[in-house]
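Dear support,

We are seeing what looks like truncated structure output for some complexes. This example has four components. We would appreciate it if you could run it in full and send us the complete token output so we can diff it against ours.
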Amino acid sequence: MRAQRPNSREKILAAAADVARESGPGSLSLDAVANRAGVSKGGLLYNFPTKAKLMQGLVEGYLRDFEQALETAGSNDKDKNPLAVYIRLSAEDCEEKQPSASWIFSAIAEDPDFMTPIKTFKRQLFERLKGEAPDLKSLLVCYLAIEGLRSMNLFDSDVLSKDERDLLVSSLLDIAQ
Amino acid sequence: MRAQRPNSREKILAAAADVARESGPGSLSLDAVANRAGVSKGGLLYNFPTKAKLMQGLVEGYLRDFEQALETAGSNDKDKNPLAVYIRLSAEDCEEKQPSASWIFSAIAEDPDFMTPIKTFKRQLFERLKGEAPDLKSLLVCYLAIEGLRSMNLFDSDVLSKDERDLLVSSLLDIAQ
DNA sequence: CTTACTGTACCGTCTGGACGGTCTTGTCAA
DNA sequence: TTGACAAGACCGTCCAGACGGTACAGTAAG
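Here is the complete output from our reference environment:
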């Protein structure tokens, strides 16, 4: 219903993420994205009338996917502790060698305000976890450590070995009970 | 010996950091920096012959300051546990409402390779801590949580209240023994 | 006839950087 | 003490290129 050949949108978004990751966040030009997506510049601007809308599309897609992943992980997982679910999901995300959100740097460079939806999302998530966690101290430590893991993945600083990452995750799950 | 009026360099670096923080990472132009520093564009390019050199100057200054802060904190602090020293120092850094390194986004946008010195620095720091820490699990949790705190500060997502930050730090110091 | 594009040509703006000129400071011979 | 001079530090202007965005004519499918 959204469009007749709707995979163009997704193709463009994926291409934008690819270009941002491979060519660096500062080189995310509309021409580069159009080429990468196999779409003319006119076609790109047909789907996203401005560069800001493109970025907004990236942010919204990311948040949508994340929320959905959290939801399905929450219902599949036998462990009903939401913090543990979040830890496991995040650790899985960070396994990927290629950070799924490296385009964030492009968005920030374009306009720092693109971060506000992400910030409010995170704040809500934290509040939700706080409501269901038995111990504030454990929650703080675990949540921040996961934030650190995500940060490392984003900056792809491969400081930790795989063993160390596994040890960390199991320690966190321990702390989260 | 480095220069006859060497405060120009520092003034320019400070101006660059200010512009990056206030105008957004994508708006860090040489003109803006020159204006902010009270220096002509020619003068700016005299001190830093290219934009890349300017970024490099920011990175080097940041690393130098950080190392020095670690050193003095290590000798002043009665607690000889290096991890505890690092935790306290980092927590102090993150108290500042204005992240001291928001220019990092500008550097990444310019060229992701500007991160490599910072990455190797962090890796070395982590290795050093690992050498002196009694328990790997505690180190991992503490180090990552601090990394998370730094990340939050950088993205200035004010998710934690001051009380929560304090509670986190004391918990980490507990874990670090 | 509408939707969803392609392809091209173009405009205005911004930016990094090169360049020539200018002011300041230190040095040193007379 | 002074004057000549060179090097250092900085100014102001100009330009080529890249970029975001517009306009528009064409077209293939449903």
